[in-house]
Amino acid sequence: MKAVHLMGRLALDDGFIARMDTLVHRAAEAFAQDEYDPHATLRTVSDWTEEFADACAGTYGETYSHDDVLQAAGMALSAITETINEQIGKLTEAGFALPHIAEANRRQRRERIDTYFEERAMLDQDTLLRTTYSLNAPTTAEALWAMGRVYGSQPRTELIDGNADHQADSNIAGVDSLDILIPSSGHSSLSR
């Protein structure tokens, strides 16, 4: 499946990772203010994925369909969900989240902690010594790398510019306002 191969390439492209890291912070800020729009965010990631797919065509001679691009973008966005949630948690604790968002985020984090300790309690001592599971979410690069490893590791590249505000082919070109990057819809699945 070509989308899987494309995701493997995306996961190790420094430019794509840098853009996604910017998106993590902007999405968390928007979510904390109840302005997150998952459709606009997916469109942004899809645009970046299409730009990357075009670069792959020129570099490797690989071609990807529109469906491949959309599927790979969805996988990439899915990979960073926990990273976004952790950023929302940091904004919540700093007092930058609306009260209902803060409460939902705190509840979700309490549930994650409870699950963590329930899972740890079931492990034998030898397994406990060998596990590296953490309560902290992975960084953007770690989350994408893990997803890329699942779908087949590729060499590290930098086929696209890492600047999320880069003018070429990005639907957020020249944007100074978070509201334009991630327009308000009042709905999201993150941290609720």
Descriptive notes:
- The chain is an all-alpha fold and 192 residues long.
- The chain has one domain.
- The chain has 9 helices and no strands.
- It has helices at residues 2-10, 14-32, 38-60, 66-79, 81-93, 99-121, 125-130, 140-150, 178-181.
- Helix 1 (2-10) packs across helix 4.
- The radius of gyration is 18 Å and the shape is globular.
Model regions low in confidence, pLDDT < 50 over at least 5 residues: 166-192
Work out the helicity level.
55-70%
Taken together, the total number of domains comes to 1
Major sheet details = none
Rg from alpha-carbon coordinates: 18 Å
**N to C succession of SSEs:** HHHHHHHHH
> Structural class per helix/strand content?
mainly alpha
Cα shape:
globular
Total count of helical runs of at least 4 residues: 9
The mean pLDDT is 81
How much beta, percentage-wise?
under 5%
Say how many strands there are.
0
N-to-C span: 32 Å
TL;DR?
Helices cover 64% and strands 0% of the residues.
Which structural traits does this protein have?
single chain, 192 residues, mainly alpha, 9 helices, globular, disordered C terminus
What is the element layout, followed by pairings?
Blueprint: H1 2-10, H2 14-32, H3 38-60, H4 66-79, H5 81-93, H6 99-121, H7 125-130, H8 140-150, H9 178-181
Helix pairs in contact: 1-4, 1-8, 2-3, 2-5, 3-4, 5-6
